[in-house]
Amino acid sequence: MRRITEEATRVRGVSVLSQEVTEKFRDALRQLEEDRDVEGLVAIHSEDCDVGNVAVPQTFHGHDGLREFWNNYRKTFGQLKSEFRNVFGDDAGHGVLEWTTTGDANGKEVSYDGVSLLEIEDGKVKRFRAYFDPRNLTHQITD
Q1: What residue ranges in the chain does DSSP mark as E strands?
Q2: Considering its fold, how many domains does the chain have in total?
C-alpha cells in the first residue's frame, strides 16, 4: 500500500486519504476474519466512532463498542472470508466496499452479498454501516 504524505493529500484532495483509509479497513477486516484480531479495526476508527449493520438494531459506540460489535460478528462464524469487488473512497470523506462473504456457521455453509459505508474524518473511520439482506443470512445460519 502506498504511503501518502500530508502535502500529497492537500494537493490531490481528500479522496486519496479516503481511499487509503478504506483500503486499511479492508485489510483490518481480513485480519479479523483470519486471526480473530479486532485491533486492526480499532486502530483505524476514531475514539468516538459508531458502528452497526442492518441485522443488529443496536448501534455500538467508541472503541469498546466497536470491539463488542466485531467480536460478536466474528463469533457467529467458523471459517470466514470476504471477497471485495469494489473498494473506493471519494473526495467528501466516504469509503465504500462491495463484498461477498463466504464461510460457515452452525455447521452450514453461508454466502451473502453486501455493501459497507464508511464516513471518514481526520484519517479515521468515524461511522461504519453494513447493508445486506439479513433474512438471507439468518435463513442460512439458523436451523
Answers
A1: 45-53, 60-61, 80-89, 94-105, 108-121, 124-132
A2: 1
